[in-house]
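User: Hey, my collaborator sent me this sequence without any context and asked if I could get a structure. I don't really work with proteins. Can you help?
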Amino acid sequence: MARQFVGELKDGDQIDETFLLAEKQLRANRNADLYLLSQLRDKSGTISGLMWNVTESQCADFDAGDFVSVRGKCQLYQGGLQIILTHIRRVEPASLDMGDFELRPEKNVEDLLTRMKEILLGIDDPAIRGLMECFLIDDGLVKSLAQSGAGVKAHHAYPGGLVEHITNMLEAALRLDDLYPDVDGSLLLAGIFLHDLGKVREMSFESAFVYTDEGQLLGHMSIAVEMVTQKVAEIERMTGEVFPREIELRLKHMILSHHGSYEHGSPRLPMTPEAIMLHHLDNIDAKVHEFVKTIEQDPSGDSNWTPFLPRLNRKLFKGGSETE
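Assistant: No problem. I've predicted the 3D structure and written it out in structure-token form, which is a compact way to encode the shape of the chain:
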């Protein structure tokens, strides 16, 4: 029997399939009865799964990151597809084809890593280039970077997604360099590499992306600042020279301000040309990627629009002509 991929589901389909449980929430309705709200994923996309009248013990045997066998019926609700579940249980991954569940960058990860290293090792400023070399000779870090996503579900949320996000931003910065001569290109390129580097420790990427204890308690910005402090100390031991203090401060400021505003999680507002440019390059790459992937993976294939997306506070237009 052919697999029922998320991207192929239609209203009314009977579902008997295995998915990756990307998110699990137990909620209570107005009568205090519990229901399960889940996000079920395969390589073609993600769909909500809803199961009414559950108990905590029924849902104790599985958690986010597990593979689950589900039965139910696909239905259209407020313009989007969801599965009303009648059965869910954990299954062992050994019997599954991991290729059915793995999201990957469109480009080869090794090629992305090679290009990223080429750009960073071509930085003009010798102190900043030396710091980048110190990061790039850390084989464990580079391996983790190649396996990491840039987010849990919003953008580049798949193995290799973080290096794809970083490399896209590096390429954009190079293309814009001549237009903004007052922006220090060396600082900008290094800041792009460092801004999300803490995500290699903020999240676990073994199956579904989930936050680590360190990630929950500190967040990727604080982790990345700590990583810079460690590498600066390391390069000073290696060279016997003091690393320029202002460069270290500017790089750390770029990390701490790259979300752009307090309400979006930045402990500092961008206060240098490089910091504000980093923020906008990050936002462009993240948002365009999120829009494109949301449209591509929307299971509501018959509609010109996605359902309303609370995370984006809007629907997205997928294209197509109106019925004459």
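In plain terms: The chain has two domains: 6-99, 103-293. You can pass these tokens on to your collaborator as they are.
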